[in-house]
Amino acid sequence: MAQLNARGRHKLRIQTKKLRYAVEFFATVFASKRTARRLKWLLPVLERLQDGLGELNEIAVDKERLAAIAIRRGSKPNRAYAAGLLSEREDTRVESAMAAATEAYAELAKAKPFWR
Questions:
Q1: CA angle, corner 102, sides to 86 and 12, nearest 5?
Q2: Among 12-26, 31-45, 47-61, which is the least confidently predicted range?
Q3: For the chain, what is the domain count?
Q4: 19 confidence band (pLDDT: 50, 70, 90)
Q5: What is the per-residue DSSP string for 39-66?
Q6: What pLDDT is attached to residue 12?
Q7: Is 115 domain-assigned?
Q8: Please, where are the H alpha helices in the chain?
Q9: In which domain, by residue range, is 99 found?
Q10: Number of CB atoms found within 10 A of residue 114's CB
Q11: Do the beta carbons of residue 6 and residue 60 sit within 8 Å?
């Protein structure tokens, strides 16, 4: 997870979203107690992964916008300073979002197919 750049994580987020929606769609086709147990475990894992990746994407977009504000031609020094402070704040969010996404990804890797 940490080796992916922002674009790679965004692509993974989109794939996770598609997987989650597909699992939700096909869940009714496979109706057994084992399937229900696996789905009860799997769907929250997919949701946590999607949320963590979504937060990482928001941070990346925020940082791009802040950088654009800071270097805008004719920008006042106080804007650049404020952009720097906000960018630093975003850096502190990365660690917890990355940890959450990495943990959910590791859990997902252990998942058994819910349809068997």
A1: 85
A2: 31-45
A3: 1
A4: very high
A5: HHHHHHHHHHHHHHHHHHHHHHHHHHHH
A6: 96
A7: no
A8: 6-26, 33-71, 77-109
A9: 6-109
A10: 20
A11: yes
